[in-house]
Amino acid sequence: MTEQDKFVEKVVLRNEFATEKQLQKAKKILEANPGKSLIQVIVHVKFISKEQAKSILKLYEKKRLKKKSVNQPQESSPINAGPAFLDDFHGGGAPTHTPAPTPTPAPAPSPAPQPQISVSHSGGSFSSLEEYLLHARGKNASDIHLNTDCKPLMRLHGSLIELGGSIFSAEKAHQLLFSALTPEQQQQIQEKKGLDFSYIDQQGNRYRACIVKQRTGWNGAFRIIRRTPPTCEELGLPENLKRLVEYHQGLVLVTGPKGSGKTTTLASLVDLINQQREDHIITIEDPVEYVFSPKTSHINQRQVGKHTASFSAALRAALREDPDVIMIGELRDLETTSLAISASETGHLVFGTLHTTSAGRTIEQIIDVFPPDQQSQVRTMISESIKGIICQQLIPRKDGSGRALALEIMFNTNAVANLIRERKLFQLGSVMQMGKKQGMVTLDHSLYQLVKDGVIDGQVAYYAAVDKSRFQEWAPKKDF
Questions:
Q1: Residues 34, 92: contact at Cβ < 8 Å?
Q2: 233-441, what's its fold?
Q3: 417: phi then psi, degrees, rounded to nearest 5
Q4: Please, where are the H alpha helices in 162-310?
Q5: For residue 163, which of 183, 143, 187 has the smallest C-alpha distance?
Q6: Are 472 and 448 in contact (CB under 8 A)?
């Protein structure tokens, strides 16, 4: 193996990105594919991500340049850490272990050496916040928790997993967490004893962060955000949901419990408009998660607490900015909800989220926000303005490989509108079952299909179901 391959092997093992057994498998593939490097092989077989690979290669380049400056060896070509190099596994012939061809782009030019976060530590023994974040991102975790009097934790496929290492003292937790804050934010958090904010690391990766004061010290949670919104296809959303972005007026809601991917689904739909229409899009979020790159639309993104005082204040201002599409991170209060409904009736397409688990409960919660003497009028307004409701949950897969998306989808039809106006939402499930041809589906049907397909466990579906009678055969046995 080359010096680079030996360095890569050492870093991968030390970081526990792959086991020795997996690396032996990678070496066999490398032997069968001369001209390739170990880093290309382990990216190709998905032992590490391209992002991790680029960090490792840049770390090796730093070491190589440092050694060169001391020993002055003969000139050698720089290490290429570009995505084309990492993708170019099949250049010069397909590997012997798989028949699947991939594109063969030319290697990208080497970037100038930059200071990089070291990845040569085992999980749990890092010295900086960014090392923890990079490690969790490399493991495809959704969140990382750094709390006083606890070991570091990451959430992987919905479960919390210890990273190892020592328990954080109050001083260590404070040092790590406050390194993410600007001087202004440090002043705010000392006054409020808590702060929600967006954090961007040195490599440009984004995180939704929350730091709070508790009995023993400071706790921090960081939600790991992709650089770009995923597509509907990547999320596994059905094709018929795309009809919701074809409207130019109305209300579209994405709902579900915390951590169910509401923001990601919302961002995917909004980015679809960004690709297809020449619209003015305004997003109001707390904090901003996905950063949209304008494609065919013009996009403004505002963060509550940083660019505006509240959701309602930003929404009032947005209505004077000639928007076509408004995305509201959360319908939190009466004023925001009322403004959102009014905007959806006056020529704007409005997207929002709620923490509800079914279409019926979503409509009920919106109506219940209003005083009793206004609820009849609100029912009529919602029956006319609502275009669709997507309720989603992420359910652990039976094989432990991740989580599966269970969806409830409601589109507004004459039958649905009548039920909303006439206060007969208890019949909504039956109407949705009859509306299967229109693309509607209940959460329970989605869960049942996932169980039938062997994707999720029946008992897990039982606990997630709205009407548990359909899942009685998987109900937990009671001990008497």
A1: no
A2: Rossmann fold (3.40.50)
A3: -60, -40
A4: 170-178, 183-192, 232-235, 262-276
A5: 143
A6: no
**Which of 277, 271, 272, 284 lies closest to 248 in space, CA to CA?**
277
Q: Are 38 and 94 in contact (CB under 8 A)?
A: no
Q: Spell out the residues 6+ positions from residue 469 whose beta carbon is closer than 8 angstroms to its own.
A: none
Question: Domain 129-225, CATH 3.90.79.10 — does that match?
Answer: no
As beta bridge partners, residue 222 has 144, 209
For residue 37, give both structure tokens. 């490097």
Q: Report whether 224 contacts 143 (CB < 8 A).
A: yes
DSSP 287: S
Q: Which two tokens stand for residue 240?
A: 């018929």
Residues 6+ apart with CB under 8 A from 356: 255, 256, 362, 365, 391
- pLDDT per residue, tens digit, the chain (480 aa), is 788 888 888 887 766 677 777 788 888 888 877 778 988 888 887 777 777 788 788 888 877 776 665 555 444 444 444 444 555 555 444 343 433 333 434 343 333 333 333 333 345 468 899 999 999 999 999 999 999 999 999 999 888 999 878 899 999 999 999 999 999 999 999 999 999 999 999 888 999 999 999 999 999 999 999 988 999 999 999 999 999 999 999 999 999 999 899 999 999 999 999 999 999 999 999 989 999 999 999 999 999 988 999 999 999 999 999 999 999 999 999 999 999 999 999 999 999 999 999 999 999 999 999 999 999 999 999 999 999 999 999 999 998 888 999 999 999 999 999 999 999 999 999 999 999 999 999 999 999 999 999 999 999 999 999 888 888 888 776 543
Instruction: Give the Cα separation of 314 and 325 in Å (integer).
Output: 14
Give the list of residues 6+ apart from residue 301 with CB closer than 8 angstroms, or none: 282, 283, 285, 288, 291, 292
